[in-house]
């Protein structure tokens, strides 16, 4: 038995309650104060995670690149004259 949030609870039961709280998360305004303290604690932790994720989320999904001092434009591969074919051991094309 361990003491979690002022109440003695078995570790297995606490983990199950925390998992249940994650799966059945509700916003703060909809929570009941009569719920188990472990459930309320886990939902409070989830609130903090959602707030930090919203703060770090940007408006675009592009990753900015560091500024470069020069730009290279590569030419196309023009030296290929014909497609390469695979030949079996007898020398026949496959």
The number of distinct helices, counting runs of at least 4 residues, comes to 2
Major beta-sheet overview: 2 strands, antiparallel
Shape: elongated
Mean pLDDT: 80
As a percent range, the share of helical residues equals 25-40%
Estimated structural class: mainly alpha
- Estimated radius of gyration: 30 Å
- The percent range for strand residues is 5-15%
Give the terminus-to-terminus CA distance: 70 Å
- The ordered H/E elements are EEHH
Number of strands: 2
Cross-sheet strand order for the largest sheet: 1-2
Low-confidence stretches: none
Q: How would you characterize the overall build of this protein?
A:
The structure is a single chain. This protein has 94 residues and is mostly helical. Helices cover 35% and strands 6% of the residues. The chain has helices at residues 11-23, 37-56; strands at 2-4, 7-9. Strands 1-2 form a two-stranded antiparallel sheet. A hairpin with a 2-residue loop joins strand 1 (2-4) and strand 2 (7-9). The longest helix has 20 residues, at 37-56. It is elongated and about 80 Å long. The model has no long low-confidence stretch (mean pLDDT 80).
Produce the secondary structure layout.
Elements: E1 2-4, E2 7-9, H1 11-23, H2 37-56
């Amino acid at each position: 038995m361990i003491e979690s949030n002022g109440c003695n609870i078995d570790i297995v039961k606490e983990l199950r309650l925390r998992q249940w709280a994650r799966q059945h998360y509700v916003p703060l305004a909809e929570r009941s104060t009569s719920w188990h303290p472990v459930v309320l604690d886990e939902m409070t932790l989830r609130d903090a995670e959602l707030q930090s994720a919203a703060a770090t989320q940007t408006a675009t999904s592009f990753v900015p690149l560091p500024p470069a001092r020069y730009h290279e434009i590569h030419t196309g591969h023009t030296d290929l004259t014909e497609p390469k074919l695979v030949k079996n051991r007898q020398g026949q094309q496959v």
